[in-house]
């Protein structure tokens, strides 16, 4: 049914809400994109990335504007998401390594207690944030979601998410001002 249609025609049908066209599009591109993503990330992450992109395409179908070949767009999207995930994992690993080194080298030192106290105070400060700020902050900083992903999930604009996260950071920096050198070293705030 869709085999004889061009990618542009299929995208046009998807934009109009044609679920069967989307299913065809998904089944056609999913395996190839997963294989491509596996070059960068683990298989489970590759599947999740491709599923997220496909879900994003479906959810944003009415405003979908692809100004290049569909395949090129998909591969660039997958590569970008993979590199973003790698970057986030690298930062998380750096923080984990730093904390591990600090804990191992100074279990009895003041630094250990300062990190432990910081962790507790950070969690308490996050818990005191207004709910909308806290939700956006946690999704971005701890779940690794982009402003656009959060805005789609919460059904608000990216600018609103940006504002909420900036306000959360402002509040947290004020509440945790005594820990700013340590927070800066950990790249948390």
Percent helix, as a range, is over 70%
Contiguous helical run count:
9
CA-based gyration radius = 21 Å
| Secondary-structure element series | HHHHHHHHH
Which secondary-structure class do the elements indicate?
mainly alpha
Distance between the termini: 52 Å
Features:
2 domains; elongated; Arc Repressor Mutant, subunit A; Rna Polymerase Sigma Factor, Chain: A; 189 residues; single chain; mainly alpha
Task: Write structural notes for this entry.
It is a single chain. This protein is mainly α and 189 residues long. It has 2 domains: 1-105, Orthogonal Bundle (Rna Polymerase Sigma Factor, Chain: A); 107-189, Winged helix-like DNA-binding domain superfamily/Winged helix DNA-binding domain (Arc Repressor Mutant, subunit A). 76% of the residues lie in helices and 0% in strands. It is built from 9 helices and no strands. α1 crosses α2 and α6 packs across α8. 14% of the residues are buried. The model has no long low-confidence stretch (mean pLDDT 86).
